[in-house]
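Case study 2.
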Amino acid sequence: MGMRVRRLVDMTAPYLNFIVFLFLAAVLLSSFVGLPVPYAPVIVQLLLGGFIGGITNKIAITMLFERKWFLPGSGVLLKEHRRIIHSLAETVESHLINSEMIQEEIRKLLQPVKIENAEKIMNSVIDEFRDDVIGYLRSDGTRKEIASGLRDNLGFLGKFLNVTRIKEYEEMTETIIAELESRLSGFRVSKQMLVKTIQRMGTLEDFLFRPHNELLMKHYQTERSLIQLVFEKINIRQMVIDRLSSYEPSQVRDIIEDNIRAHLLWLEVFGVILGMICSGALLLVTAAFPS
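Prediction:
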């Protein structure tokens, strides 16, 4: 039932003032030509009140979005473009998205993970990519890179071994690749490895939120947490301002209008209804206290 009423209002709201005006004009015309209309004065008063209420709300809404020469002060969203952008940015940062809210959501996502589950997940990832890594090691490009690295870094000893054929560069390359392949083929993450890592680095939540992080202190010389460093670089308010400032005033107006236009139509409907109610109340008062 509620949805039907909403659809009916959405369909009729843009034309409601015109409909009320037509009924008002019909009653007035009927009275003018002498056609009897029961309770015509009352109906005219109610329709007139409804029309005035609806049309004044419509004019007020129009003044928000459009600039008309005959409506002083109209075009509010166009004239107050900069102030509206800053107000929206402040609202977003204060009530919708800010660093504290995002950090809280991150904490919720970082629920403690069981060691067994972490071990299973990491090993499944390793199994997924193991063959690709081994294939990369076996490729000709990798062989050439390793052999080139041996030539550049082993110096006289490498040249001596290669020239005397005690251990040629190609043979050393094959040995290295075979050893890496052997280690990769049998590599698995164990519970002991995870426990030691957690003991040293802490949980993922600790790594993100705990101050005095070893890595950050070593590489960035800071005692602040990683999450603090990240959000120091993120100014949500300025991001919103910069983004909206890239739009023309008319585009900002259109964004706001697209989001609230349907709700503003209800104001026109309520304007008609309240206008009729006020007119009806005035008629009752007048009838109760005749002059």
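Residues 115 and 133 are 26 Å apart (CA to CA).
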